[in-house]
DNA sequence: GCACGTCCATAGCCCATGGTTATCACGGAA
DNA sequence: TTCCGTGATAACCATGGGCTATGGACGTGC
């Protein structure tokens, strides 16, 4: 049914040399091993591949029929190995950058990239948009090599990070909301509002954007769960609730029908470039260094 | 270095299903066996082929690079198997007919063929001219399935045969030979002549054509050794000796410069269709039967 | 919230496979 | 005759690849 590539290699060698002992030497195996394998192959195929006697070895008709296929398959395999090696090399030079929201924060990414590519000119940077259900933006499941994430993270012990921005939390409201006309609001004024919340998988990050710690023990009221920018916009204009967001993300939501206001009485949020704690690849750390250099934490 | 075809098959199945348990079922192996093999393949290639976690299995970049090659190789192998099967089928329907001299004996072969193909319409008959160094005309080394041979044979216990002709022995002489003008000769007149002889490998058949038994214990004088018709012709006209031959072969030698005469005092020769004693293939016996029917032994 | 189901990984076992060295059998050459 | 070259065979051993049983990490449903 199946063949071992080795058997084809052995067969091709004997077919080329028409001499078991010599072929065995070329293959770096003993002559009995070669004889046995050829015999096994013949048994598997149900027909002899060689006519052999004391003075000469000849291909049979069946052997002649098999030979070109065997050679082609051996070529194919070396080609496959080449393809795998190429893919491995590409994987080594590709850095996947996970991010939860669109690439915003005016010019941050280009700034990091230009510093990074100075050190790694052959690296290939790939941006990957990740759903908000994963607060680590792809680090946890390995789909990202580095990621821009909001702190705090549910499993901080599995990550390393550098903070690249510290931003006050704003509140986003539908234009029609009673508070929408204000210059700013106290968080206390929002305690009774229904909030849009990240999915439960976001863990402590969900709590952070609900500002659970700042509610004095009162449970937040969740109006809807959101896992993307457009969803959030729709939920806001649909009146399902209000939500907090980092100042740097305000441009993503302030389209028609939504306003954002500063909130007094809330600690700022920290935005970080993170990686897996066990990841020792130079590229990863070079990117982290570039991120820190581009945005020295204020 | 090499791959087992099975590994490719396993890999392709998992890549198709993206589900180890299900793929294992399709492959009729246990799930651990499949997991282990994939892991071995990954180790051999030095890179993971799948990203797997509890909920999903995905191809990695390396796996994606390998997949088309794997599929192509699997196709190639089924093609190779088809080619082998075809070659086997052809071998089963091909009958190789060995003969030492040219196909002569006016119409014998077509007569046998027509009887034979009545029973085996799909058989393919191949004539094979064999050097006189092999008195069995290819039966001994397996290069013929049946063969027209002269009796006696060196290893009669390894053959079966039916006699298809019994012919007086003639003597072939160069035109310039003192006896060339005669109507016939007594063998006693030839005892002092140098004879052309078959190679020593012909064994008792060499003795037969030297008529060693009919010399009363005197050693024959060998003028040259011959292993083909043209060689014999040249040796005759070159005056290296005379030689005996079956009456049916006379036309092969009686070209310009050579004459053949009846010889009194010699037993006739028997020409037979032979096969290997252990060969039980129906085609072989059908051909023997056809030969016997076409030329009932006189 | 807890028991259960799903799915991949691991462990331990067993036999077939594929390698080794030593030796044989056979034919050709010296 | 003896010796040499060749492929086949024997006896042995490590590994590979299969199995069953079990583990661990998530989801799911009562």
Care to describe what's here?
The structure is a homodimer of 298-residue chains. Chain A has three domains: 87 residues, Orthogonal Bundle (Arc Repressor Mutant, subunit A), CATH 1.10.10; 98 residues, D-Maltodextrin-Binding Protein, domain 2, CATH 3.40.190; 99 residues, D-Maltodextrin-Binding Protein, domain 2 (3-Layer(aba) Sandwich). The first copy, chain A, has nine helices and 13 strands. The longest helix of chain A is centred in the first third of the chain and has 33 residues. The termini of chain A are far apart. The model of chain A has no long low-confidence stretch (mean pLDDT 87). Chains A and B meet through helix 1 and helix 4 of A and helix 1 and helix 4 of B. The structure holds a DNA duplex (30 and 30 nucleotides).
Properties at a glance:
13 strands; D-Maltodextrin-Binding Protein, domain 2; four-stranded mixed sheet; elongated; 298 residues; DNA-binding; alpha/beta; Arc Repressor Mutant, subunit A; homodimer
Question: How big is the Rg of chain A?
Answer: 32 Å
CATH superfamily of the largest domain in chain A: Periplasmic binding protein-like II
Shape type of chain A: elongated
Structural domain count of chain A: 3
Fraction of residues in β-strands of chain A: 15-25%
The CATH C-level class name of the largest domain in chain A: Alpha Beta
Discrete helix count of chain A: 9
Assembly annotation: homodimer
Which strand order do you get reading across the main beta sheet of chain A?
4-3-5-13-6
N-to-C order of helices and strands of chain A: HHHEEHEHEEEEEEHEHEHEEH
Pair of chains with the largest interface and how many residues each contributes = A-B, 38 and 37 residues
Percent range for helical residues of chain A? 25-40%
Q: Largest sheet of chain A at a glance?
A: 5 strands, mixed
Taking the alpha carbons of the first and last residues of chain A, their distance comes to 66 Å
Instruction: List low-confidence stretches of chain A.
Output: none
Class of secondary structure makeup of chain A: alpha/beta
Q: What is the number of beta strands of chain A?
A: 13
């Amino acid at each position: 049914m199946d063949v071992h590539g080795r058997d084809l290699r052995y067969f091709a060698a004997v077919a080329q040399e028409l001499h078991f002992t010599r072929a065995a030497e070329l293959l770096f195996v003993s002559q009995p091993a070669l004889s046995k394998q050829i015999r096994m192959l013949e048994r598997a195929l149900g027909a002899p591949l060689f006519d052999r006697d004391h003075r000469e070895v000849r291909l049979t008709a069946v052997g002649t029929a098999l030979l070109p296929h065997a050679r082609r398959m051996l070529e194919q395999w070396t080609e496959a190995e080449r393809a795998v090696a190429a893919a491995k090399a590409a994987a080594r030079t590709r850095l996947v950058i996970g991010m939860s929201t669109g690439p915003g924060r005016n010019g941050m990414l280009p700034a990091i990239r230009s510093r990074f590519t100075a050190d790694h000119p052959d690296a290939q940077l790939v941006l990957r948009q990740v759903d908000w259900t994963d607060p680590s933006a792809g680090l946890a499941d390995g789909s990202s090599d580095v990621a821009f994430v909001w702190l705090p993270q549910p499993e901080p012990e599995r990550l390393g990070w550098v903070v690249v921005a510290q931003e006050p939390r704003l509140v986003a409201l539908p234009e029609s909301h009673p508070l929408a006309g204000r210059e700013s609001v106290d968080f206390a004024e929002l305690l009774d509002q229904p909030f849009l919340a990240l999915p439960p998988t976001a863990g402590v990050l969900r709590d952070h954007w609900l500002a659970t710690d700042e509610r004095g023990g009162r449970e937040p009221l969740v109006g809807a769960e959101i896992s993307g920018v457009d969803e959030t916009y729709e939920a806001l204009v649909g009146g399902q609730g209000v939500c907090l967001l980092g100042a740097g993300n305000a441009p993503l939501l302030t389209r028609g029908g939504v306003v954002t206001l500063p909130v007094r009485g809330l600690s700022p949020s920290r935005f970080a470039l993170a990686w897996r704690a066990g990841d020792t690849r130079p590229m990863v750390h070079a990117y982290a260094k570039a991120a820190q250099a581009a945005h020295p934490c204020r």
